[in-house]
Amino acid sequence: MERIVPIRTEFITLGQLLKLIDMVGSGSEVKILLGQGRFRVNGEFEDRRGRKLRPGDFVTLPNRDVVRIGDGASPG
Question: What's the DSSP call for residue 24?
Answer without folding.
Answer: -
